[in-house]
Amino acid sequence: MERIETDVVIVGAGAAGLTVANRLKDAGRSVVVLEARDRVGGRLWTNDIDGATLEIGGQWVSPDQDALIETLDELGLDTYERWRTGQNVYISESGERRLFEGEIFPVPAKTEGEIVGLIEKLDALVAEIDPDAPWSHPDAKALDEISFAHWLETQTDDEEARLNIGMFIAGAMLTKPAHAFSALQALLMAASAGSFSNLVDADFILDKRVKGGLQQVPLLLAERLGSAVKLGQPVRTIKWQPDAPEAGVVAVTDSLEVHAKRVILALAPVLYSRISYEPALPRLQHQMHQHLSMGFVIKVHAVYETPFWREAGLSGTAFSPYELVHEAYDNSYDGDPRGTLVGFVSDEEADGVFRLTDEERKSAILESLSHYYGEEAKHPVVYYESDWGSEEWTRGAYAASFDMGGLARYGAHLREPVGPIRFACSDLAGKGYQHVDGAIRMGRLVADGILAEG
């Protein structure tokens, strides 16, 4: 087995791990990055599928994502705006297709009032939440002991209003049913984006895309590190001495043994248990990590000969809490004359369609898209489903979140070092939580902490 000596070993070549590695390298520290996959990027992945360039993982840039925007500028990457010209589509419980502009859905006046009222209440609560320490809110424990679904029920008896507000957190972000996570977890999700209003504003949260794909960020960061990035190297064991943490750490793969002063786990918390620790991690970490789980969403890409919906005066933006595909957007790739729609099937709906055959699932999803865009939506020239739940080194999307009561109970310990072991990923971020911006922020934070230690 090959032995390597370095200052810091990083497990995971996603945006967080590669940000850490570059920041430490620029400060004169030696680094080695061990990545289980045969590519860099983690949950960022731009790939060619049947001649179409698709962003299989994360892809959007919003104007508040300062860390990501700074990184794009530093790497010389350009962006382009998501197509949003035209009318949006909403489908009601009865299946009626309604066109609208702006952020508020075309629902009955009473329901509209309830939706606006809920957004105002949530914005007021979110303003009290520190995204880096939501557990510090005076009502944190109480908010963490009721589900977001239950909280909504205490605020309004209008089911359509509850479903639509719930959709933005449950289906669109945490990708879990609203009864499966707490009100506090929902408030953290909104606080990480600045406000709940930002989450319901598609033109804000899904503002721009990166030319060449967002995976360009980790690809270019890895390029700067050269041979320090080792692909196809899943870490099996981490060895350290709790009585003498200054003695360092050893990360062991099937063919490498990397000796370092520090190790950074730059991967989703659900993957921590894939590594054996000698000695075992402290009891607190074992318990905490069992209360974190990934959501589940299918990201559907449908490419057409032309963006036909634009000719019909549609923006491509579509929503419905009653549809299999609960949200969809024009996702046409820069420079490609064809049109691409991207849609999302989340949580229990995703469970359901994966019980179908591949063709049955495709037919059901395209049928749902056709309710928004018409019959032409049933006939893409390229069709692809991003299923991160089946990815061995991800196991879900978009990020890990706590079960009921877990955030108030364990949240303050998420980033705590364990001897020479540090933790960095978007799942642990405050601002930018579950986004690339959060991954970069966490990478910077951990790197700066190590440098401050000397």
Automatic annotation (TrEMBL):
Gene3D superfamilies per the UniProt record, alphabetical: FAD/NAD(P)-binding domain (3.50.50.60)
Pfam families reported in the protein's UniProt record: Amino_oxidase
Keywords for this protein: Oxidoreductase
Residue ranges of every copy of the Amine oxidase domain listed in the record: 16-451
Binding sites annotated in the UniProt record for substrate: 344
Keyword Oxidoreductase appears in the UniProt entry: yes
Molecular function via GO: oxidoreductase activity
Amino acids binding FAD: 35-36, 235
Names of required cofactors: FAD
Family: Belongs to the flavin monoamine oxidase family.
UniProt protein name: FAD-dependent oxidoreductase
